[in-house]
Amino acid sequence: MVQLIQDCLRLLLVSFLLSCSLGSEVLRPRGVSLIKASLYDPARDFSCLDGSGTIPFRNVNDDYCDCRDGSDEPGTSACPNGFFHCSNKGHIPLDVRSSRVNDGICDCCDASDEWASGADCTDQCQEFGRAAREEALRKEEESKKGYSLKLGMIEQGKNMKQERKEKIALIELELQQAESVRAEQETLKLAAEELESAALEQYKEANEAKKAAEDAIKLAASEAEAKEAFGELDTDGDGAVTKQEVQADTTYDTNRDGSVSDDEATSVDDEGEDESLLDDDEENPEDEDDYDPELDNVDEGLLDEPTEVPDVVYDDETQGLVDAANAARSSYQDAQRSVDALKKQLSEEQASLDKDFGPEDEFRVFEGRCFEYTDREYTYKLCPFDTASQIPKNGGGETRLGTWHDWEGEDTGPRGKYSAMKYTNGQGCWNGPNRSTLVHLRCGVENELISAAEPSKCEYVFIFTTPAACDAVEDGSDEHAQHTEL
Ligand code: MAN
């Protein structure tokens, strides 16, 4: 003790700027932390901490800057790059810039930085420390509670994952069955189509033969009719019909004046009815090629009728095979549709299974859920692993602020990348980037979107509290207690 008092007196003599204390506190110059105390030994010259020089110990805290790193003036404002250490007994120690020493503003809660300014600073460290300890305790309690809730979320997440796996296995089985049904239906379809096309080919051939026969009959009949009409006109039977012979036939007395005039006889040609009956050589030699005996038999009225394409009517047997093929095609299509639907379902389920819901699946419970936060202008919506959006309070549509991209935390703590989520590729921003959102995850007992901001245009930052972001709390891990020096 005597030695300590002597040391202290010597220090006081060395410089009025040095401080020291007794008791459990380690003797050290003003502004020096406990950790560095041993580097300031009053019994020896002081070596600048950066090695830039050595000075007599009395020059420490003499209000003149000797060392380049400012380490010789821990308790004064002489060095612009130095630091003053506040012990802040009862609260958390703090290093403040040397320029803050005696500047009239209380920076240290123990008022030690204003030791000569006359500023009205009082030691508030006990009070602050108590409040901080209470807050730390509250946080610790919250973390403990949050962590126990997280354990539940982990279990729930794992169960959901297991259920999803089972669902996938079931869908895979259904898909296998659907694929074999499709294969069966395809075989049936091919067989039915083979029968159908053979029957249709047969039908086509038979139909063509029938039509050809009908055409031949029609042609023969019209030729016979034409021959008969010709014979009636060719009264002298010389094989040619003269104008006189036509004029002798009262059928051509169209004006019913009792005789067939030259005009009436020649108009036979114009009317296009019996032109072919005239002696071609005499009257219409140039029309020889136009003769179409079939036209003679066509009822002119029918020519004005719209052409109707009658439905193909097959014989019963062919129709039966066509119906069977249609039914087989339809069954095959149904089977194909079932396969497609199951494949789609499978890929969705698989994508969800493969999604990274946290190291222990603790975030899986958020799939399909959404959370909202409303400020003065907008309601912000976060649907974890899906989208982030913004809805104006005074009406207007929803603006997409991003879709799920990945984990993007930069935490150096245990949660690492799982401390933040990134949503990208939202709606384009006028004169700016596509909207995107970073969601910081904080430990809390509630799953709650607690804030949303837009620190730079179209780049949004949300804060979401959740037990899933709570880490295991070790008992006695009170940071404050650890940091308190004294
Ligand atoms: C809307 C909102 C805002 C955004 C502007 C950009 O008003 O999405 O958040 O800043 O568009 O033009």
TrEMBL record:
One of its GO terms (molecular function) is calcium ion binding. Keywords: Calcium, Coiled coil, Disulfide bond, Endoplasmic reticulum, Signal. SUPFAM superfamilies: EF-hand, Mannose 6-phosphate receptor domain. Pfam families: EF-hand_5 (PF13202), PRKCSH-like (PF12999), PRKCSH_1 (PF13015). One of its GO terms (cellular component) is glucosidase II complex. Residues 260-304 have a biased composition (Acidic residues). Residues 161-223, 325-352 form a coiled coil. Residues 244-253 have a biased composition (Polar residues). Residues 221-256 form the EF-hand domain. GO terms for biological process: N-glycan processing. It comes from the Eukaryota. Residues 1-23 form the signal peptide. Residues 368-472 form the MRH domain. Residues 230-304 are annotated as: Disordered. PANTHER family: GLUCOSIDASE 2 SUBUNIT BETA (PTHR12630:SF1), N-LINKED OLIGOSACCHARIDE PROCESSING (PTHR12630). This is Glucosidase 2 subunit beta. It comes from Hyalella azteca (Amphipod).
